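Our collaborator T.R. sent over the components below with a one-line note: 'Predict the complex.' Nothing else. No constraints on interfaces, no templates requested, no preferences about which chain binds where. So this is a plain run: every listed entity goes in together, and whatever single assembly comes back becomes the starting point for the next discussion.
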Amino acid sequence: MNASINKISNGLNRRVVVTGAGLITALGAGKKENLHGILEGRNAIMEVKSFDAGKYRGRIGGEIKNFNFSRKCRRLKPSRLDRATKLLLIAVDEALEEAGFRQNLPADTPAVFGTTLGGMLSGEAYHKEIILGKKGRPSLIFDYPAHHQGIHIAEEYGLNNASFTISNACASGTNAIGFAYNEIRAGNIAIALAGGYDTMCEFTFAGFNSLQAITQTTCKPFDRNRDGLVLGEGVGVMVLEEMSHAVSRNASILAEVIGYGESSDAFHITRPEPAGEGASLAISRAISNAGISAGDIDYINAHGTGTPFNDVMESKAIQRIFGAASRNIPVSSIKSMIGHLLGGSGAVEAIITILAMKEGVLPPNINYQTPDPECNLNIVSVPGQKAHIRRALSNSFGFGGANAAIIFQGY
Amino acid sequence: MAEEFVITGIGMVCASGTGKEMFWDALINSRTGLKNIARFDTGGRKSHLGGEVPDFDLDAVFPDRRFRRAADVSKYCLASSKLAIDDAGLDPYRWDGSKVGLVVGVTHCAINYSREFHTAMVREGPAAVSPSLFSDSVLNAPAGNVSIAFNIKGAIHTIVGGTPAGIDAIGFATRVMRNSNLDLCLVGGAEEMDSVVSDGYARFGLLSPNDGQHEGIKPFGIRRNGFVIGEGACVLVIERKKAAMERKAKIYAEIGMFDTAACVTPGRFRDVLKNIGDETAYISTGANGTAGDDIEAGALQVLCDSGHGSRKPFIGNIKPVTGECFAAGSMLQIASAAMVIQRGIIPPSNIQAEGLGPKFRGLGRFNVSAVEMKINVAAISSIGLKEEGALLVLRGLH
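Returned assembly:
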């Protein structure tokens, strides 16, 4: 961010809107395809094919199928790019196209991305070559470090502002959007590109399997018989913009971001704090930041990983904030359909939440059959339920204790 | 008017040893911590030198068995955090954790744990992998561990970047604080040496000696031939100026302007550097003997052109002492600049020994020995290997 924006120009809090969004997940490329899948409650989880998953306990995942990168790059060499950057480019294109910035995105637009793995697919290929006694191709390192994807995006779109890469595990995507929102709200910038991404790679698959966190059946967040998460891959990217800036150029506005909150558990490197104190602090901060009350929230897009620990913790956090109303507010986790996208999850879920608000339909929490008394929430189990969602909350909680919550309002 | 933040605590672990006094002593005496690498076998490699952390003992600084299996990068970060908190005169067991934030900049992080995990996975299969290696290999493990150790519940962030990541972490942290009600924030940079990282940079011809000549890190040097890899961590405590003054905290320096760019061009930092005005500045450069030295010199030229005679800036560099510590390195640079301002002593530039490249001679003063002089403004710059860069200005309170 350039020097001039280090100054907050005045004390007024500006309003922040979403003027573009791009998505690619196991449900497909683009918002249309994803919304269609979400509305019908389509399960995009199947046995992982990009490596031999047969040797693992849990074998399923949400892979993006038949992804062929045919995009013409202006400044980047596709052969040197990791799958993460390629997916990111597709989603950024969609977001910029919608926002009307495909050709004329101001060069001082900051790009803030969240990721857990960066270019780990290249990294694991490089490691593997070395482990097997080869030299390791330097070309594999080109896009391995987790900050290189952001730099490559800046390079391709001619951006020369801050390209912060945030790696707060599964909260990263929400943190990135929240940070950009705060910067616009504070008057430091007018437009920002923000989102999150991660790819399916064997390293992570083996890691989560070693933690016995991956289900051998289906991902069923908040269900009494839930037995683990499913990994997925994908990208979500938004164009965030100061409202008067967007209005003055007649941009189409998808939704308004009205609140963001974050916190840390300070509890355990992989387990969430069981009482949900940290998570509820992030939610209450988002509500307070939005200047609304808990009763103003019409829908909660849950982090809902489908692990025994997370879902009880999140239920407790929701109950702490919403009290008796927590049994009525519709709650769902779309990880049941596309898997857990790690650094991509918060951004993808935020965009799905916005699309659902616009469509007036609640995203379903598929595979939910048996209520769990420890997760006493109103889980949206049936696809296609109509609802008027004025304001929605999207939660993200990560390894290492990072918690983030963001609130959107229909425009 | 932007709210002001100050540095009130410093802690570090690097090739000079553990703690700020060992670091400062090494800087003042130009004592290098670069030695033949012991951590991995350098036989068959061209590069043998490294800035390894010597005699590190987390228990001596922060005895806590919960972290005994953590990667060294986390342990360095834990020790540095404890030292910084103590230095700031704070007590993590008494503070309101919900008002404390943490931002850690990393570059490669615990790549040794990733490598070990991956080696077991490839050679022996899924049953042989260790879950604890996996959970501590993630980029945000140092931040996670520090938050657990010191009851930090307000906000937690890991910023990934190249060598400028420490500066970026400071810029990010001040923004997080402005947009929240946090009282203070620990801001760190952490890095751990590993053979995979070293080999990777060697393959790209970035590690000294990439010309087969004398091995060593020679920032802005006429015979510069790559960098020498280092490791460590550095953590600062930053607070709101008003609150720090109210509690009569020792203040090293005030955090001034910050800029970061995906691609640094000459003139990119013009606005920030102009802000220094005509004061004599100390500049902690990030030059490490690679192509980035030229980019950095181009970016700093604005400042150097404006300073003449006694106002010519002092050019400093810590890398011949610590090696290139990436995210931890730029945070060590910030710490060194804050200590220069607080102590009124300018360490030797550490640059001249190997012969300054002719095009760099006009940058400023390259002092051979320490100079006693009250400096009120310092700039810290770092250019990454992708030509990304960041710049930060610090000011004294007098």
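Summary for T.R.: The longest helix of chain A spans residues 83-99.
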